[in-house]
């Protein structure tokens, strides 16, 4: 059973989320404002498997909550709810540290699917941390796939970290899974359709602009010059390709 924090100031919506998540077997705690949520997560250090975070909150908004959690090295998966689905708002949410977003009004089935995807990825990460090295999943070259090194960088998918020299960057769940998909298919073009279906579990007709925003973030981590990428390349009109000169 997963423990989920609902951060929502609209009482009727919060009650609806509580009821439906309980029906799916989850336990929930509700916070009606940002300060209560931050108190639970940071000052009380309560453990949650996922946060459903509304953007429009009294006082601090959801963007500020996500940013404060990441700055405090709290990397609980965040599904952000927003009444505005504009690309700039979505990008702002990802920049703050959200793992996924859903525009209001939403269908319950879509919300549950998004939550399920984030929870599964969190569980996969936990399993990879406790698995013996010999039982770790392997990529198509036969090497251990929990760690992947290239050009002086190491991606640790179990810990969701990218290490380069003395620098360590923590990846969100969605960043880690997208990067895992691209690395696993390195040297081959990965379509946006493939990313939507195989990484996010969404229909192919879903807006793909969020993928582009994730790619921008990953290039900042991976590339010496993000404006002229050597590893994470765009294949115009199709998708992306991860290249590693070491292979």
Tell me about this structure:
The protein is α/β, with parallel strands linked by helices and 247 residues long. The protein folds into two domains: 3-120, Rossmann fold (3-Layer(aba) Sandwich); 131-242, Winged helix-like DNA-binding domain superfamily/Winged helix DNA-binding domain (Arc Repressor Mutant, subunit A, Orthogonal Bundle). It has eight helices and twelve strands. It has a five-stranded parallel sheet, sandwiched between helices. A four-stranded antiparallel sheet has the order 6-7-8-9, with no helix packed on it. A three-stranded antiparallel sheet has the order 10-12-11. A hairpin with a 2-residue loop joins strand 8 (161-164) and strand 9 (167-170). The protein starts with a strand and ends in a 5-residue tail after the last strand.
Computed Rg: 18 Å
DSSP strand count: 12
- The low-confidence runs, each spanning 5 or more residues with pLDDT under 50, are 129-144
**CATH-assigned fold name of the largest domain:** Rossmann fold
Helicity, in percent? 40-55%
Name the CATH superfamily classification of the largest domain.
Answer: Response regulator
Portion in strands: 15-25%
Provide the residue-averaged pLDDT: 83
Structural class: alpha/beta
**Topology pattern, helix = H, strand = E:** EHEHEHEHEHEEEEHEHHEE
Number of helices: 8
> In which order are the strands of the major sheet placed?
2-1-3-4-5
Biggest sheet details = 5 strands, parallel
Question: What does the overall shape look like?
Answer: globular
Termini separation:
42 Å
Instruction: Give the domain tally.
Output: 2
